[in-house]
Amino acid sequence: MSARAATTTTRATGDLQNYNAGLGGVFAPPVTVNNGLFYTSNVPYIFLYDALIASCNAQSVACSASSNVNFLDTGKCLTTVSVLPLL
Q1: What pLDDT score was predicted for residue 79?
Q2: For residue 87, what pLDDT is reported?
Q3: Euclidean distance between CA atoms 85 and 25, whole angstroms
Q4: What SS3 state is found at 45?
Q5: Domain regions of the chain by residue span
């Protein structure tokens, strides 16, 4: 019996990334705020939108890298990023 990769995750308090689905078992890195800047993967962004897009892109790249190493179909790593405008 093989272990299945998780398909959803629970976000930590303070994580602004609300995309909880795993792409090929890979989850989007958290987005946090500190001193007025938004961070994901230790990179600062001025706008939340940019940090969320970077987080989703990092998830897609990590999924593709994992799929390539394991000779799996990278099609499961593609997703449509939808971020609602912040008004």
Answers
A1: 57
A2: 38
A3: 28
A4: strand
A5: 1-87
SS3 of 60, please? helix
Q: What is the pLDDT of residue 74?
A: 55
Dig out the tokens for 27 from the structure: 């989850």
Q: Within 13 A of 21's CA, how many CA atoms are on the CB side?
A: 10
Backbone phi and psi for residue 39, each to the nearest 5 degrees, phi listed first: -125, 140
Residue type, 15: D
Q: How far apart are CA 85 and CA 64, in angstroms?
A: 28
Model's pTM, two decimal places?
0.72
Backbone dihedral angles phi then psi of residue 44, each to the nearest 5 degrees: -85, 145
Distance CA 61, CA 59 (A): 6
Which single residue is written with the structure tokens 């990023």? Answer: 81
Q: For 36-49, write each residue's pLDDT tens digit.
A: 999 999 999 999 99
